[in-house]
3-isopropylmalate dehydratase
Amino acid sequence: MGLTLFDKLWQEHLVEQQPDGTDLIYIDRVFLHERTGSIALSSLAAAGRRVFCPQQVFCCMDHIVDTYPDRSDDTTMPSGRDFIVATREGAQAAGLNLFDLDDPRQGIVHVVSPEQGIAQPGLTLVCPDSHTCTQGALGALAWGIGSSEAEHALVTKTLRVKRPRSMRVRFTGELQPGVTAKDMILYLIGRHGAAGGSGCAVEFSGPAVQALDMEARMTLCNMAVEFSAFTGLIAPDAATLAYLQGRPYAPRGEHWTAAEAYWRTLYSDADAVFDAELEVDCGNIQPQVTWGTSPQHVVDVTARVPAAVSTDVVSTDAVSTDAVSADDASTDAGDAAGRARALDYMGLEAGAAIAGTPIDCAFIGSCTNARISDLRLAAAVLRGRRVRPGLRAICVPGSMQVRAQAEREGLDQVFRAAGFEWRASGCSMCFYAGGEHFGFQQRVVSTTNRNFESRQGPQTRTHLASPATVAASAVTGVITDPREMLSQ
Ligand SMILES: CC(C)[C@H](C(=O)O)[C@@H](O)C(=O)O
Ligand code: SF4
């Protein structure tokens, strides 16, 4: 029987099977950020333990950093300085790679890693952060861990892990103009539930995935964790190789040739069997926008807010449902009580059109949608237009490299002229706990990945959408289908 891509990656890194049923997996690279990494580093230092292979450990400053461009205060959070200082000092003492606040490579960990060529096909890569799955877009086995697991990985270069099940999601057909990878993943979660990929390593494949550029693939994999997956991954192909070649940490010369030969073996064999398979026809996907407080609370931007009692979670196109069931999804945020509470929290009426809902703020940022292609897409909508007066609009590039590239292309001028704040890089308004936030109950259309209660500030009402939808909504001041503005 053939092997899946996931089987190949797992097998390659399996050190031994443990008596308790877990597997000991070799870890190639560890990423840390100041919010959780500082805790791991301080705890290791207190226990007198050493990082085993410092050159394979990379530290970012992103979660609680000041994103006002002058960076006058390092952090916007009163207790933030301690995290930053602990990470800086811990990284320097252990000889780790550090992308500090004044480094031109600084940015959000899951943006920086692929950008620098650190995430590569065939590697295992972990970080105490749930969106590490983003990096599976390059064909790496990358997943989020806790900070005590991070300590274990730092000291031993291994981790004990329960082997996840495997799932394949095939995206067929073609995306319509104005529909993006963000819409693909929101649509998938809307149809199969926020628990739809529970416990699975989910391989995204099919012609519509192959047609995505690398940054769009990262957006798709980023939200695998919102699908409750162990991780998301995409088989490396010519686009992956072209993206990686020449990046600072990518192999060179004969090392590249050897790596490429291995990378070309990383795909699911034709006769590989998955524990579960889903198929999605991209021709059906419209721009998506969430209406509630779970990523599965999502509708077409042209649709109405659903009634609390109905459920739009289905599992009908699952070929095999060993690992998935509609019940899994409908027991959590999909249930009637959850939906009613979400409607109430969001201040929305069932049956009302979602388009036309007035918003207070627009946010373009995060590891989901703040790479250069996302900024270009938003700028294509904003060029020659202005943000609706009174609305607060913010653009926070995913890294300082993205910011610099955008400035070379004059995109910052487009954002500024439209009335957007143009920031330095960090997690910023993706994450209330980072110190910056929107106001009480403000309604935000956002390119981020989580719309939980109070995610972006006190009782904020977050609507997740693509950069095009966020930009179009910023212009009109109401939730807006971006397609008309994109075609003009
Ligand atoms: C702070 C960190 C642990 C957290 C995560 O793991 O995802 C954050 O990045 C988030 O997006 O909520
Ligand atoms: S941008 Fe948001 S989702 Fe991504 S790592 Fe930062 S806080 Fe988490």
Observations:
- Residues 35-36, 63, 129-131, 144, 431 surround 3-isopropylmalic acid (ligand 1) (CB under 6 Å).
- The longest strand covers residues 165-172.
- Confidence is low (pLDDT under 50) at residues 315-331.
- The domain at 361-487 is CATH 3.30.499.10 (Aconitase; domain 3).
